[in-house]
């Protein structure tokens, strides 16, 4: 897996996966100080709603979807690192209802620390996932950096009628989450070498499962909004959906599927610093029922690397859409309801 005396990938990074993301509060402060030019009318989705990708109309019926995502190692296996990073980047196009066309690689590596063999394995892992998605890595850019960084710029195409934003959920919709949560907890245990092989395999299966179902969901009139759950955790990305859509939501925490063993791992002290950061960022927007434990809060704010799609769907079609997720092999569940805007953006019930 690595050459003699070569350090573990995770030992070279101060953070890993989507837990590396800058906190919502800091990001908002940074962007608030950047002068923004007037957006052209063709820009259908930009910075305004914290959406997953930019969308630019190119003709009467089609638009380009463009996104980028990259991070530092969340695992030590270089092929797995590349595969997870690529899956995560592609998810942003699927979350808009789009079809990826090609990708460019973003590569920053400590070339005097990691062997060319290890670096090539990272790129191969990403390339393999792109091949599974039906696209190629058509180019990219590499630099010599202090910490290993890998990700993709992904360009996609979407029929405008199939475009789904995170800001168009409607009162009365039901909310579906397409994958289990707890990836951040698993990653904390991985960094300490304490995750069992069984749980590691579950982790890899989840984080390298492409959210290709987003293309099918974009074709359904009953699906009103989509986003994917990544570094800000379920609550953070749901909060973005609620703010953009000017609605509130009720979440039933017992309906949310969790990766096996995450409760025990939390009890052993395995959690990311990003989970508390995510909770702090939305503390004024969420009302927790008194039955919600501190462990529940950690998981609801747990940063998900390559997490599931969060989908708002008309009530009449919710079970049908859930069945589609299950048929396509996703560990999905109906987790809540969209309600009229109230004092809080999110209410968490047991």
Defining traits:
6-stranded mixed β-sheet; 7-stranded mixed β-sheet; single chain; 13 strands; 350 residues; globular
Number of helices: 11
Q: Strands of the largest sheet, in order across it?
A: 8-11-7-12-9-13-10
Q: Percent of residues in helical segments?
A: 25-40%
Number of strands: 13
Uncertain segments: none
Cα gyration radius (Å): 19 Å
Tell me the β content: 15-25%
Query: SS-based structural class?
Result: alpha+beta
Query: Could you give the order of the helices and strands?
Result: HEEEHEHEEEHHHEHEHHEHEHEE
Give the arrangement of secondary structure elements.
Elements: H1 24-32, E1 43-45, E2 54-57, E3 62-71, H2 78-95, E4 99-109, H3 116-132, E5 137-144, E6 149-159, E7 174-177, H4 183-191, H5 197-207, H6 213-218, E8 223-228, H7 233-245, E9 248-252, H8 262-267, H9 273-281, E10 286-288, H10 294-300, E11 309-313, H11 318-327, E12 333-339, E13 346-349
Parallel strand pairs: 4-5, 9-13, 10-13
Antiparallel strand pairs: 1-2, 2-3, 3-6, 4-6, 7-11, 7-12, 8-11, 9-12
Helix pairs in contact: 2-3, 4-5
Overall description:
- The protein is built from eleven helices and 13 strands.
- It has 350 residues and is an alpha+beta fold.
- The strands form two sheets. It has a seven-stranded mixed sheet with strand order 8-11-7-12-9-13-10.
- Strand 1 and strand 2 (54-57) form a beta hairpin.
- The radius of gyration is 19 Å and the shape is globular.
């Amino acid at each position: 897996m690595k050459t003699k005396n070569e350090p573990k990938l995770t030992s070279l990074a101060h953070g890993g996966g989507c837990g590396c993301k800058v906190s919502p509060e800091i990001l908002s402060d940074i962007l608030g100080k950047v002068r923004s030019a007037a957006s052209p009318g063709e820009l259908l989705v930009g910075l305004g709603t914290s959406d997953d990708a930019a969308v630019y109309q190119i003709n009467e019926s089609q638009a380009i979807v463009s996104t980028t995502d990259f991070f530092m190692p969340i695992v030590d296996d270089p092929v797995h690192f590349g595969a997870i990073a690529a899956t995560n980047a592609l998810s942003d196009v699927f979350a808009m209802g789009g079809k990826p066309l090609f990708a460019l690689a973003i590569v920053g590596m400590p070339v005097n620390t990691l062997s060319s063999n290890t670096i090539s394995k990272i790129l191969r892992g990403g390339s393999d996932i792109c091949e599974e998605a039906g696209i190629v890595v058509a180019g990219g850019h590499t630099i010599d950096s202090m910490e290993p960084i890998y990700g993709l710029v992904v360009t996609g195409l979407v029929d405008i009628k199939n475009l789904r934003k995170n800001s168009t959920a409607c009162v009365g919709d039901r909310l579906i989450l397409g994958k289990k949560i707890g990836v951040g907890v698993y990653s904390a245990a991985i960094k300490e070498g304490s995750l069992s092989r069984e749980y590691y395999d579950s982790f890899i299966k989840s984080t390298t499962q492409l959210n290709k179902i987003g293309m099918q969901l974009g074709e359904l009139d009953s699906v009103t909004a989509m986003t994917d759950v990544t570094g800000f955790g379920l609550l953070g990305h749901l909060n973005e959906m609620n703010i953009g859509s000017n609605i509130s939501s009720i979440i039933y925490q017992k309906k949310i599927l969790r990766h096996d063993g995450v409760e025990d791992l939390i009890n052993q002290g395995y959690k990311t610093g990003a989970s508390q950061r995510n909770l702090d960022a939305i503390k004024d927007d969420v009302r927790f029922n008194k039955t919600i434990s501190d462990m529940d809060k950690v998981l609801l704010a747990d940063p998900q690397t390559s997490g599931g799609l969060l989908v708002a769907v008309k009530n009449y079609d919710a079970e049908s859409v859930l069945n589609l997720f299950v048929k396509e092999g996703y560990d999905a569940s109906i987790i809540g309801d969209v309600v009229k805007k109230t004092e809080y953006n999110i209410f968490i019930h047991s």
